[in-house]
Design a protein that fits this description.
The protein has no helices and 3 strands. The chain has about 70 residues and is mainly beta. The N and C termini lie close together (about 10 Å).
């Protein structure tokens, strides 16, 4: 969702197995910053416990001007 002031709303996702939080603004390992969770490859797993994408839940929204 975009706002009139140019800000965008992004969602962080939390692993239900170990509580690792994927922040799309930061990325992770080979995943570059600003990669939405929905764009992660099916082969991506939690770097902390190895859980699959299906084991992640939308955690909260962040309004960010850098995206």
């Amino acid at each position: 969702m975009s706002f009139p002031n140019g800000k965008k709303r992004v969602h962080k996702f939390s692993c239900t197995q170990c509580n690792f939080v994927y922040d799309p603004r930061v990325g992770n390992g080979d995943i570059p910053p600003n990669t939405p969770f929905e764009s992660l490859p099916d082969s991506w797993v939690c770097p902390k416990c190895g859980a699959k994408l299906i084991d992640f839940k939308k955690k909260y929204e962040v309004v960010d001007i850098d995206l």
